[in-house]
Amino acid sequence: MAFKISDECISCGACADGCPTSCISEGDGKFVINADECISCGNCADVCPVGAPAEE
User: Fold this and answer.
1) How far is it, in rounded angstroms, from Cα 4 to Cα 38?
2) Which of 1, 9, 17, 21 has the most CB atoms around it within 10 Å of its CB?
3) d(CA 14, CA 19)
4) Contact of 13 with 26, CB cutoff 8 Å
5) β-sheet bridge partners, residue 34
6) What's the burial of 50, exposed, middle or buried (CB within 10 Å: 0-12/13-18/19+)?
7) DSSP states along 8-26
8) How many Å from the N-terminal Cα to the C-terminal Cα in the chain?
9) What is the pLDDT along the chain (56 residues), one digit of tens a residue?
10) Alpha-carbon distance 41 to 29, whole Å?
């Protein structure tokens, strides 16, 4: 199951830097995860300072 980034995102980029598949990119006001490329490893959630990424 892929992760999704909530509206709590502060656009710091920590999640993108921690993603081993580079499936996270900056979107409109928050970062977004490409669900087709996400391997559900949880690295994004581990490094996010506000807990924005969560499993869908």
Assistant:
1) 9
2) 9
3) 9
4) yes
5) none
6) exposed
7) T-----HHHHH-TT--EEE
8) 7
9) 899 999 999 999 999 999 999 999 999 999 999 999 999 999 999 999 999 999 98
10) 24
CATH 2.30.130.110 correct for 3-55: no
Please spell the DSSP secondary structure of 39-51, one letter per residue.
Answer: ----HHHHH-SS-
List the domain boundaries for the chain.
Answer: 3-55
Structure tokens at 49: 């300072």
